[in-house]
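To make the argument concrete, we let one protein speak, a sequence paired with a row of structure tokens, as a model reads it:
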Amino acid sequence: MFWWSASGNLGPYLLIQLAPLVLVPVLQWQTGAPPAQRRAFGVAIGLYVLAKLCELADAAILSAIHALSGHTLKHLLAALAALVLMRMIAASR
């Protein structure tokens, strides 16, 4: 937050947000991760992307639904992504 307020540059924040979307699949491919693990991460990444899209469409979603905002949906989708990964970890034990 200091960097952004001091420079107005969101580059580092965007890098932290987007790098895992590319690096996790690449690392899974390089290490030969099991298919079930790849699918779980694929679903989690998809849910994360949907969460970010809901965040961007916050006002439009609120005006269309009137009961939920995009911000609320973002948190629900992010929690669902975490649940997918927790289930994958539990199943691997």
About this structure: Residues 2-92 form one domain. The chain is about 85% helix and 0% strand. The chain has a mean pLDDT of 90. Helices lie at 2-7, 11-31, 35-56, 58-65, 70-92.
